[in-house]
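Take a look at the protein record below and flag anything odd:
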Amino acid sequence: MKKLLCPQCKISSMYVKNASGERRLVYVDENHNVVPKYPEESLEGFDLTEVYCLGCSWHGSPKRLSGKYV
């Protein structure tokens, strides 16, 4: 799987949040699909329309991630 990068700091590690504020570590693949870092974890109930970068303050739509891959 190719992972998209943060447009600001160029890392692939992201997270998503749910209504309770819980976080789940994710990557975004080359098709802009949000994929859990740990496959056994479910993303049900998490907002997949906004991802947050673990390396900097950037957050936004998965479609805004850089076209560069890891």
In short: The first strand starts at residue 4 and ends at 5. Strands lie at 4-5, 14-17, 23-28, 34-36, 51-53, 59-60, 66-69.
